[in-house]
Amino acid sequence: MKPGQASDEFIAAALHDAVHGLRESDPLASAAVPLVPWQRWVLGGLIATTGVFLVLFTTVTLAVLAGICTFTYLIAIADRILIFRRGLPRDAIVTVSKAEALSIPDDELPNYTVLVPAYDEPEVVGDLIGAMRKLHYPPSKLQVLLLLEEDDFATIEAAKQHHMEDHVQVLLVPAAEPRTKPKACNYGVHFATGDIITIFDAEDLPDPLQLRRVVAAFADSPDNVACVQAKLSFHNENQNLLTKWFTADYGLWFSFLLPGLMQSDAPIPLGGTSNHLKRSVLEHIGAWDPYNVTEDADLGVRIAANGYRTAVLDSVTLEEANSDPINWIRQRSRWYKGYLQTWLVHTRRPVRLWRQIGTVSFLRFSLLLAGTPIIACLNLLFWLLTLFWFLGQPAFISLVFPPIVYYPSVVCIIVGNTATIYMNLVAARENRQPELFTACLLLPLYWILMSIAAAKGCWQLIVNPSYWEKTYHGLHETAEET
C-alpha cells in the first residue's frame, strides 16, 4: 500500500504491530522487559553471594574472580583468532562481480524495498536522495521509503526541498514510544512492496550495484540463507585519529571476522545498515524488536535460532565515521548496551537456544554478545592493576594473582594485545589502507575509549534500557567548513 493511500485503521494497526507485534507474539523474545523473574533472582543471588564471600574471604574471592576473568579472556582471544583465521581466505566472503551483477535481466529481478529511517537529520537528506538515485536497479521494481517521524519537522521540510523520483517516497511514522529505529522499520514493512527488504542509514553511500549483487548472491546461495550483509566502511577515514581507529575496527570486523563467523555457521550480529533480508523470513521471525537498541544484532541471532543463515557480501556501503569522541561514546555505549540486551533476551530460554544453534555456537554467541562489553569494562581495571604492578609490585596484587592466575594473565596481556594489533594491521593491509598502520599501532588508546563506552552502556542498561541515544551525523562537513 502506498503511504498516501493508507486508511486511519490501517495506520493504527501498523503502528500497534510495529510497537507491540513481537512482544505480543513472543514475549520472551522482546527486550521490553530487561530481565525476566528468574534472571533477576539469579543475578541478584550471584551479586549477594559474591558480596558475602568478599566480606568473609576477601583475598580468596578476588583471586577466584581474577581467575574466572583470565580464563574467559583466554577463551575469547583464542576464539577471536580462530574466527579471524577462518575469515582470511578470499572465498570466505561472497563475491559477485560487476559483470555478473549487470548480467541479470531486469525482468528477472525481484521487487526490492529500501527502508531509510532518519530522525533529526535534515543536513543529510540531500545526500541520501542522491545516493538512492545512483542505485542501479529498475525504478519499476524499486521502492525507497524515507521513514520520518511525523513531528520531525526540520527533516520533513528538508525532504520537501528536494526532487524525488516516483519510487522514492516519504513515509511519516506516527509519534509513539519507543522512539527507536527498529520501530520505524517495523512500521515501514507494512507499506513495503519488495520481496527483499534492506535498510540504509540516512548518511549511507551504498555501492550502486549492491542490490543487484545481493540478488545474485541469494540466487547462488542455499535456500536457508535469509540475509545478506554487505560490508561497511567510511568515507572520512582520514579526518582524525578517531576516524582511523573506527575505520580499522570496521575493516577487521566486516572483512574478516564476520566472514569467519559465516564460515563457522555461527550467529552473525548484523550491522545496522545494508543487511538485505528475504521479506518472508523477516515476517516469519517477527521483524525487529523496537525495544532493543541493537535490533540488528538481535535479528541476526533470531535468524540463526530459526534455522536460517546469513551470508556476508563483498560490497561496500560508505558511512560517516564518528569524528567526535563524545558522539562516538554515545554511539558505542548504545551498541554495548544492546549487545547485553540481546544476550539477556536470548538466554531466557538457554536450553532451547543451545539445541537450536549447537554448543560451540552457543558459547561463541555468549563470548561475542556478553563477553565483548564485559571484557571492555574489565580492560581498564586490569590495565590499572598491571600499571600498579610495574610501578611498585604492591603485595595485594601478588595475593589476588597467585601463580596459577598470574601466568595465564601475562599470556592474555602479551598474546591478546599483540594478536589484536596484528589482526588490525593485516586487515588494513588487505583492505589497501596503509594510512591506517600508525593508528593500528596506537589501538590501546582506542581501547580506553571502548572501556569508557562499555561502562556507560552497562550503567544505562540498568537505569534506561530502551533509551536510544542519538548519534549525530554531518560532523565531517562541519569540520571541513571550519
Structure notes:
This protein has 482 residues and is of the alpha/beta class. The chain has a single domain (1-482), classed as Spore Coat Polysaccharide Biosynthesis Protein SpsA, Chain A. 58% of the residues lie in helices and 11% in strands. An eight-stranded mixed sheet has the order 3-2-1-4-7-6-8-5, sandwiched between helices. It is globular and about 70 Å long.
Poorly predicted runs are 478-482
What is the rounded Rg? Answer: 23 Å
Please give the share of residues in helix: 55-70%
Rough outline: globular
Q: N-to-C terminal Cα separation, in Å?
A: 45 Å
Estimated structural class: alpha/beta
User: What does the main sheet amount to?
Assistant: 8 strands, mixed
SSE succession: HHHHEHEHEHEEHEHEHHEHHHHHHHH
Average pLDDT: 90
Number of domains: 1
Indicate the proportion of strand residues.
5-15%
Topology of helices and strands:
Elements: H1 8-25, H2 37-56, H3 58-87, H4 98-102, E1 112-118, H5 125-133, E2 142-149, H6 153-160, E3 168-173, H7 181-189, E4 196-199, E5 205-206, H8 210-219, E6 225-234, H9 241-263, E7 275-278, H10 279-284, H11 295-305, E8 309-319, H12 325-346, H13 350-357, H14 359-392, H15 395-400, H16 403-430, H17 437-441, H18 443-463, H19 475-481
Parallel strand pairs: 1-2, 1-4, 2-3, 6-8
Antiparallel strand pairs: 4-7, 5-8, 6-7
Helix pairs in contact: 1-7, 2-3, 3-9, 3-14, 3-16, 9-16, 11-12, 12-14, 12-18, 13-14, 14-18
